[in-house]
From TrEMBL:
<protein>
    <submittedName>
        <fullName>Aldehyde dehydrogenase family protein</fullName>
    </submittedName>
</protein>
<dbReference type="Pfam" id="PF00171">
    <property type="entry name" value="Aldedh"/>
</dbReference>
<dbReference type="InterPro" id="IPR047110">
    <property type="entry name" value="GABD/Sad-like"/>
</dbReference>
<dbReference type="GO" id="GO:0004777">
    <property type="term" value="F:succinate-semialdehyde dehydrogenase (NAD+) activity"/>
</dbReference>
<dbReference type="GO" id="GO:0004030">
    <property type="term" value="F:aldehyde dehydrogenase [NAD(P)+] activity"/>
</dbReference>
<dbReference type="InterPro" id="IPR044148">
    <property type="entry name" value="ALDH_GabD1-like"/>
</dbReference>
<dbReference type="InterPro" id="IPR016160">
    <property type="entry name" value="Ald_DH_CS_CYS"/>
</dbReference>
<keyword id="KW-0560">Oxidoreductase</keyword>
<dbReference type="InterPro" id="IPR015590">
    <property type="entry name" value="Aldehyde_DH_dom"/>
</dbReference>
<feature type="domain" description="Aldehyde dehydrogenase">
    <location>
        <begin position="4"/>
        <end position="454"/>
    </location>
</feature>
<comment type="similarity">
    <text>Belongs to the aldehyde dehydrogenase family.</text>
</comment>
<keyword id="KW-0521">NADP</keyword>
<dbReference type="InterPro" id="IPR016163">
    <property type="entry name" value="Ald_DH_C"/>
</dbReference>
<dbReference type="InterPro" id="IPR016162">
    <property type="entry name" value="Ald_DH_N"/>
</dbReference>
<dbReference type="InterPro" id="IPR016161">
    <property type="entry name" value="Ald_DH/histidinol_DH"/>
</dbReference>
Amino acid sequence: MPDTLTTINPATNEELETYSLMSEGDAKSVVEACHEAFLDWRFRPVEERAEIIRAIGKELRASKEEFAQLMTDEVGKLIGHSRDEIELCAAICDYTADNGAAELADEEREIQGGKGVIAYSPIGVIYGIQPWNFPCYQAVRYSIVNLMAGNGVLLKHAENCTGSGLMLRDVMERAGLPKNLFSVLLISHDVSDEIIAHKLVRGVTMTGSDGAGRKIGAKAAENLKKTVLELGSNDAYMVLDDADLETAVQCSVAGRLYNNGQTCVAAKRFVVTEKHYDAFLERFVEAMSAVELGDPNESSTGLGPMARNDLRDKLAKQVEESVEKGAKIACGGSVPDRTGAYYPATVLVDVAPGQPAYDDELFGPAASVIRAKDDEDAMRIANDSRYGLGGGIFCKDEKRARELATKYFDTGMISINGYKIAQPNMPFGGVKDSGYGREHGGFGIKEFVNVKSIYLVD
């Protein structure tokens, strides 16, 4: 096993930094130090915790340019998207600071023969295993609410954004968070399993593939640890009979290519009714074909590199396998002859069950366009997936679209006549193979607390 890891700029293939991996003993010492910090933090008044969370948001904004540049260097994000990510993370801090105390406040209920009190108490150290596509956001999403709740937090970040994880730790400590309360573990998968099993770790949260989620969920269950799993998807965006075609095309391109196509709630399958199919496809292909690959540091670049060469190669293989099984390439679909982990904006048609483009998650700038007979058939196709994280509906009748989203669309988050990825005040999470549990919107702050029932008897 190697004892170091090296981060690489996916736009240039140049090495950025080399880090030493921790031994199992060193990692367990970090867990113990985090627990010790938690023992004091849990008794801090929620208002005091909120002020530190608010200060973290301010420090994120103060560090935005440096942090954004590091993320772009490590994973190839467009520099504008990196700046937007830091702003989103700061907004999460603001929302949590503003609303955390109310979410965690005791509740009183009348009970037979007395009064009932529901109290929310922190439980200890929470271990987060996070991916590379949003290096700051993925870590902030679970850590800020757990810190607000009074827990300690550990982070095992994806190796290729190690620097971002360490920078977030430094930002938090500069903002006044006690040392060791948020700690970064530079460890192997084998050591990670030992951390899950550690007696001081009380909960595990993970974002990644459904395959990885099954393994981590099983390891946590073996040790009776609660988990929250967000496991990606192949989100369907439906263009229904009364859709505004121009809006559908513009939002579909943005929804597919945001973050270089590497977003768990990206628009990935485009289910278009017969009425609009030909016109939508023509305009969509035209728009996708016009997107040029380029340096992610240039504001004019429409599409940067994928995060790693192996991820680009996996996407290329999925596209090739889909074509072998009957899909056709309408644009893109071939690895360019240039340095870096680049892949062009790609559109596949004649997409059908049995192809990766229909069944699996294409985690990159490749879109699947699927023809539906009518609105009812479109909903059937949209739900014909083992995943259920997000999705979208293009429909001028907002009342009808809302009813479809509420009653029939079997997924966790639905955008109507637009594309949204995450909002601090709205819950984030999915169903089926997309995992379970919720983050944001006041829901995440209660995922890892002890909900106590206290009976005051007359």
